[in-house]
Design goal:
The structure is a single chain. By secondary structure, this protein is α+β, with helices and mostly antiparallel strands. Helices cover 30% and strands 38% of the residues. It folds into 2 domains: 129 residues, Impact, N-terminal domain (Ribosomal Protein S5, domain 2), CATH 3.30.230; 67 residues, Alpha-Beta Plaits (2-Layer Sandwich), CATH 3.30.70. The strands form 3 sheets. A 5-stranded antiparallel β-sheet has the order 2-3-6-4-5, with helices on both faces. It is elongated, with a radius of gyration of 23 Å.
C-alpha cells in the first residue's frame, strides 16, 4: 500500500491534572472534526475556569496530520503550546485539541518547569483517553435512474459501504462513504453501469 488510510484520534474528551509547587495544570483533550471548534472549547473552559491564569492549547487536525496550531496564552514563548503539541506528535494523534488550564500557585517554575508541567498534564490526560483508529474515507454522490437502483444498491451492499444520504425518485441520489484504499475498485464497478453519474464531495 502506497499510503496510510487510517489515523489515530481519541474517542471522547478526557482530563488530567498535574501539580507543581502550588500551580495546578488541568489538561482537557477533545476529539475535533474541524479546527474552528477550538474557539468554542476555549470559550467554554474560560467560563468554567474564570479565575485561571492561562488557557494554553494545541490542535492537530487533518487526516494527513498536516495542520497544527499552538497558543502560549501569555506563558513564555515555547513553554506551553509547543510541549502540548509535541506530546500529540509523540502519540501520533490527529483531529484533537488539548487545552491546559493553569492556576498559578505563587512560585515561578522557570522554563524547564513549565515545559515539563504542560507536557506532563497532557500525558496524564491522554493516558485517560481511549485512542481509536479511524479510516480515511472519500465521500461521493451517485446519481442514477430509478431502474438502476438494484444494481447500484447491490454494489453498496456487497462492498459494505456506508450510506450517508439517499433520495429515491425518478432520478435517485445516494451519498456514500468509501474507504480510501477501496475507492478505485468501487468506482470502476459503478462506472460500468450506464448513465450513472459519480461526483466526489470531500474526504473525512
Amino acid at each position: 500500500m502506497l499510503f496510510e488510510d487510517t489515523y489515530l484520534t481519541i474517542e471522547k474528551p478526557s482530563e488530567g491534572i498535574f501539580r507543581d509547587r502550588g500551580s495546578k495544570f488541568i489538561a482537557c483533550c477533545y476529539p475535533i472534526a474541524t479546527e474552528q471548534e477550538i474557539k468554542t472549547i476555549i470559550s467554554n473552559l474560560k467560563k468554567e475556569h474564570p479565575k485561571a491564569n492561562h488557557h494554553c492549547w494545541a490542535i492537530r487536525w487533518g487526516t494527513d496530520r498536516s495542520v497544527f496550531r499552538i497558543n502560549d496564552d501569555g506563558e513564555p514563548s515555547g513553554t506551553a503550546g509547543r510541549p502540548i503539541l509535541n506530546t500529540l506528535l509523540s502519540h501520533n494523534l490527529t483531529n484533537i485539541a488539548v487545552v491546559v488550564v493553569r492556576y498559578f500557585g505563587g512560585t515561578l517554575l522557570g522554563v524547564p518547569g513549565l515545559i515539563n508541567a504542560y507536557r506532563s498534564a497532557t500525558e496524564l490526560a491522554l493516558n485517560e483517553a481511549n485512542v481509536v483508529e479511524k479510516t480515511i474515507n472519500d465521500v461521493y454522490t451517485i446519481e442514477f435512474n430509478y431502474l438502476q437502483m438494484n444494481e447500484v444498491m447491490r454494489i453498496i451492499k456487497e462492498d459494505n459501504l456506508t450510506t450517508l444520504e439517499q433520495q429515491f425518485n425518478n432520478n435517485c441520489t445516494v451519498k456514500i462513504s468509501i474507504r480510501k484504499m477501496q475507492v478505485n475498485i468501487i468506482l470502476s464497478k459503478l462506472h460500468k453501469l450506464p448513465a450513472v453519474q459519480i461526483k466526489y464531495n470531500y474526504s473525512i
